């Protein structure tokens, strides 16, 4: 395979040997982290868990003073932080198996469950397997548009997509529910590619998990505050909304801002390890920010590193990011990163632009990546 990308001084060509050498160098980075895993990684995840539980206890306690607006807002803020930490830095990363090497039940990917409506086993199938195996491959990675959005020019326009901005807004507000139904593949049911009978086990699991969450957030905890039932119910709903908007924004910034590349199934046939790594680098984007910002994003602000090494503890991503960037520079590959405002702005711009027919939008030509194999050559737009 030969990869050509536009560099500062003209085209940069990577030979098949260079691609595999890049793969070996990335393997070496991963090996060095795995060899160094130990007590500080264990201490880190348990400190985050302790902080998450502290924020939840504080939020639940402050709800008893929820009749006073400042305390209600403080309760919502504390619960929102708790749910973000549980969803991002703990749940997402633990269920990736990043801490399975510890062999401790509380952080074991096979047993962990999170504070959201999506069953853990279904998320691990749609995310850990489908998304991370087929990252940004059309018709294989269902995270491209989540089955409802047009988020890439490779998706054929349809009048349905005129509602793109509205669908994106609703997905953001109800993101945990969107993640829950993701594995149902509702669009394929509409197209007749999947039968309702296939969904019975999934629906049963979703009803069980979502039912527990609804009872906890909107019945049990509000009842515990007695006459403040509706204050607490509204506060829990607001905390879930905060978590949904934040999670949606971080995830979309890592996958869909300007410059992120998608692929066809044919381009990714019989990939070598090096070629898989290149696809992850071209199909991901990072977000610049402070240490606290990275923690609150579950370190998915380092989405490039996460797609390269999804099973190593995410707290290591900031350490290895300079090494990954250096390799990108060495081989002439783009390393897509920018401020949160820049990345989320380009995501929403893309959502609006792709809602209208292509003939109404004048797009500037972009530098390309040309993937050439012995049996064929295909040009891919970045």
UniProtKB/TrEMBL annotation:
<feature type="domain" description="Fatty acid desaturase">
    <location>
        <begin position="71"/>
        <end position="337"/>
    </location>
</feature>
<dbReference type="GO" id="GO:0006629">
    <property type="term" value="P:lipid metabolic process"/>
</dbReference>
<dbReference type="InterPro" id="IPR012171">
    <property type="entry name" value="Fatty_acid_desaturase"/>
</dbReference>
<dbReference type="GO" id="GO:0016020">
    <property type="term" value="C:membrane"/>
</dbReference>
<dbReference type="GO" id="GO:0016717">
    <property type="term" value="F:oxidoreductase activity, acting on paired donors, with oxidation of a pair of donors resulting in the reduction of molecular oxygen to two molecules of water"/>
</dbReference>
<dbReference type="Pfam" id="PF00487">
    <property type="entry name" value="FA_desaturase"/>
</dbReference>
<protein>
    <submittedName>
        <fullName>Fatty acid desaturase</fullName>
    </submittedName>
</protein>
<dbReference type="InterPro" id="IPR005804">
    <property type="entry name" value="FA_desaturase_dom"/>
</dbReference>
